[in-house]
Amino acid sequence: APDTPVIDQAYSKLSNSITVEWRAVPGATNYMLTAQDGDSFVETIVKNSPGTVTGLKPATLYRITVRSINSGGKSQPSPFRKVKTVLAAPILSVHSPSCDSIAVSWKAVHMAAGFSVSLVRSDGLGRMLKQNTTNTSLIFTNLDPGTLYTIKAYAWNANGMPGDDFTYNQRTSPNAPVDVKVAFNSGALRAVVSWMPTEGALTYSVTVSSGLLKLRCNTSSASCMVPSLQCSSEYYVSVTAYNDAGSSEPTEAVSLKTIPCAPVNISIEEDEPGHLLVSWSSVSLGHYYVVFVKSDDGLEVHCNTSHTQCHFQSDCGFTYFISVFAYNKAGQSPSGDVLNYTTAPCCPSDFRAVFISSDTVRVTWAPVRGADLYETRAAGGSRVVFCRDTATACTLSALQCSTPYNITVYSFSEARGCSSSCAPQYVATAPCSPEIKNISKEGLSVISVQWQPNNEEAMYVVTARGEAGLWHCTSTRNSCTLMDLPCGSAFSVSAIARSPAGQSLPSYSIPLETAPCCPNDLILTQVTQSVTNISWSVGRGAQTYVTTLESPKGQAKCHTLQTYCLLGCITCGTNYTVSLRAISETGLTSSCTYQGYSSSACCPSGVKLYRLSNNGIRVFWRVSDETIKYNADLHGSKGNFSCTPSLGLSHCDITKIPCGDVYTVVVAPVTDKGPKLTFCPKKIYSVTCSGSSVGMVIYRGKSNAKHI
To answer: Which PROSITE patterns does the annotation name (predicted)?
Structure first.
């Protein structure tokens, strides 16, 4: 085991521990410190010097020993030292009884002969205050309000040895706020209370009291809004500051007088026509009153008075809205009851009558102030027509046309009755509608219209309306004529009557249809010797067409929906008259004539070819009219040849025609104009070669070849 250590010194700085210093022992790895108090002891293992034994009792005398330790064991205890632990720290109880003082108290400490307490601002400003006392309480005064202080206290024994200290932070309570101001919102019946912030205050409480009623508002800012105040009331406002130390004294109360309440028991009387008397009850805290009278046309007048009644002028037919307000230095009272008073309505003005038709008139007028209902009466003819409505217009129907009426408009008010002295106005209704009796055609585009006149001093207007446009005619009598109506058109014909009183409703419409138009263009083309094609342009209004070719030798006709037609059985070389009838859907017909038409001359018959000695060909035919000139055409693979004889001859010669070829031969009349006729019959001939220069002409018919 190692050697026994020797204690150099032992001392206590804390009430629960003793610190020991000794000389190091060679070979020792640890040391055991022992503090013994009677039969109890506390041991602590440490590595080296110094070492501290903790867990001790304050103000207690201990025997301290040290033993060295290594792997071989423990040494003998060192000679002991007697050491007493220092006094325990006093446990403080601190509060701020006022904004400039802090009271400190504590319980008695065992073995303590006295106590030392110091106080300093926590922010380091100012000087430290220190007091020594044998009591267990003391008070620091003349401190800064709302300021955080640090307090330190310790006890000492009879030898003057200080014990553990105890530290505590305490804030002084705040000072009362200053510069308290009250801003009153008369419209919302609430007040905003403001003040200068107080040092160290965390929250504020505003108290608003009136008699037994108390309202509070808590805030951490420097202002607070107090709602729900009562009108015609006086309040006293004070502010108290708070922090964790307590509260300040409340500020001196500030008086707040609210706005007066709205006047009640308002009455309105029309003491004489054109004069209104408004009266009301007196209001607490009301210094004066203002009465506003607004008419329903937007005009407003007012009256200021310190009394409880006012006089106003009024007019007929107006509704007046009356409100009374009380005032004081705080402002205007809330809006009370708004009363209305309606005077007797005036007679309607700006009377106007607009005729919708011959038996209906719409009456309008300017609105009358205060009128709830209007009655319009029309007296004339054999009866009275009336209507009632809340609008400023009325439609009187079923009036007799072309009749004078006496029209009067009365205004009614539920509060004041009827305006019975209104003057009538005289108007006349529009003319009666004419009745068309007959429509007759006086020409291709001339229509006469007749009607039954049923008005005096009226102008009648007849209108033909259709897709082609409008046509009019006028007359003061019972008929007029529509001129230049287009063909192939459909119209609706109606009539109206006009007079200074207005225009009648139109009569019932009568349908009118003009005959279809003749086609502008007509073309005839001969297709074959006995068939001719006719085509024409569209005729407006026409549905079908009948075309006719007529001559002393006969007639050709066709009826079609198309704009063309093939006519057969045409005689050649004949003059025809050409006519066309355009027929509408309803059967109206227009007869159209055009320039005459001549069919082509007849084709010759008996066409034959003969061989001439000089390598030529003679073409023969039979003619039906010696006044017609003919032409012969031969077409072959070795060439085309033609010849035309003199008038009256029925043959012609073609010289130097090549043999050994097949020719198509056509003999046709020669026309003065236009192309050659292509519908005459064609014949095919074969010209053969015999020896060096003699040949034969062979006719090739439908089934055999003929030698000629």
So the answer is: FN3
